[in-house]
Design goal:
Length: about 200
């Protein structure tokens, strides 16, 4: 149990560490389209991301998968940029392919890439013991991600209220307009950060 807690703590610190900012920015990109009332849907998407990176992480630390570090570090901001673009391009997700259900699949697939990034950090720590540390690390990551999402939701709610007051809360539909403006602002900021990282990490 002490090993489980130790690796859970390690996972939590890893996701909340500023040096892991690329993963936090990805979570912000995932959460940018949601309102506070949509928190269950957002948690499902984030959990799909956890499942995705858990699969790749398990394969990498057991030696089943070995990907070039430079390629993974480049692909991580690519996933962030793609998520932010999806935020801006898709206006009606209920009419999109698979309805709103495609987004967890989307997050899970991108989680495969992020898992490889975690693996480079953890491979030397697991040595002979793998199942318990792997479980603990993933539990810590999930807890950290949920806290990041909770803080993002509070911040988004404040931004929505501020934007609504600017565009006049008395006008019908201002709530929807506030969410669109906030999604545009957050996604554009995320895209600019991801694009800079892509240029810095270009492997060829």
């Amino acid at each position: 149990m002490s090993d489980l807690f130790a690796f859970a703590t390690l996972g939590f610190r890893h996701i909340t560490d500023p040096r892991g900012a690329d993963h936090i920015v990805f979570l912000l990109a995932l959460a940018a389209i949601y309102r506070f009332k949509d928190w269950r849907e957002c948690v499902w998407v984030v959990t799909a991301f956890t499942v995705g990176h858990s699969v790749t992480l398990a394969m990498a630390v057991t030696g089943m998968l070995n990907l070039p570090t430079a390629l993974i570090e480049f692909l991580i901001p690519v996933t962030i940029l793609a998520t932010a673009l999806e935020n801006l391009i898709v206006r009606d997700r209920s009419a999109a392919l698979w309805g709103r259900r495609y987004r967890p699949v989307f997050a899970g697939l991108f989680g495969l890439v992020h898992g490889a990034g975690f693996a480079n950090y953890l491979r030397s720590l697991f040595v002979d013991r793998i199942p318990m540390p792997l479980l603990g690390f993933n539990l810590g990551l999930e807890a950290g991600q949920l806290i990041v999402i909770a803080l993002a939701f509070v911040t988004f709610a404040v931004l929505d209220r501020a934007i609504s007051s600017v565009v006049s809360a008395a006008r019908r539909g201002d709530g929807d307009r506030a969410v669109r403006v906030r999604t545009l602002a957050v996604s554009t900021l995320v895209m600019s950060i991801a694009a800079r990282w892509m240029l810095e990490r270009f492997p060829w």
